[in-house]
Amino acid sequence: MTGGTDWSALGGDVWATVASVAAVMLLTFAVALRMGVHRIVDVAWGLAFATVALTTCGFSAGEGDPARRALVTALTTVWGLRLAGHIAGRGRGKGEDPRYARMLDKAPGSRNAYALRKVYLLQGALVLVVSLPVQAGQYARTPPGPAAWAGCAVWLVGMFFESVGDAQLARFTARPENRGTVMDRGLWSWTRHPNYFGDFCVWWGLYLVAVTDGTTALAVLVSPLLMSALLTVGSGKRLLEQHMADRPGYTAYAARTSGFFPRPPRRTADGRS
């Protein structure tokens, strides 16, 4: 044991974590083949994190501090299930996601085999890396301290931006008169990506909840850094803005609205925000 985290116990049980993530991804792949669309892997993203939290909570019984284990499990599971439910509802009745359609159109050989490697197994590997704070937090033997409670506050900010931003966008897009227009109201007037900013806060919050000492801080730092990169320069913000670039009004919206971190909208030359 080093610095309050029982790394040997975590390493001994890591097979269960890997197996649980693989089960989620392979089951999702089987369902996708039956449905004929691979977009449902986005639902599995949140479910896989919840599965990691529940699996490590069960295997860390008697190893980690009960209060910290309960905190890590609850925060991760609530986030994962909310995200999975939101994405499932948003995609109900729709066809393939254009991102996956473009990727699979370029697939060498079997499209499904390519999807298994490049989508499902890759996302499973990302889940295992990003969830390192969740895994480490379950095996921490010290009770939650000031850093953990600060992490809970950051997590709450993230959940607010993510859930409220998603709800505002859903109400906006549900109105036929808004079809083809740009959402620039509510939280979307403060940041072009309140949901991605929310994810950013959630994972930095979970990082703070898991950290017990300098060793743990360095060992699991790759998690929030990787999630931040995915959200800002990976498959999140960058791809969405490429998709939105030609929509009428988007250039003006981007000029007055923060690209990521929230701030009041800039005023335009005519004095309007």
From TrEMBL:
GO cellular component terms listed in the entry, alphabetical order: membrane
Keyword match Signal: no
Alphabetical list of InterPro entries matching this protein: UstE-like
Gene3D superfamilies (alphabetical): 1.20.120.1630
Signal peptide: none
Family matches, as PROSITE patterns: S5A_REDUCTASE
Swiss-Prot/TrEMBL keywords: Membrane, Transmembrane, Transmembrane helix
One Pfam match: DUF1295
Membrane-traversing stretches: 14-33, 119-136, 148-172
Record has Transmembrane as a keyword: yes
Domain of life: Bacteria
Protein name: Steroid 5-alpha reductase family enzyme
Organism: Streptomyces qinglanensis
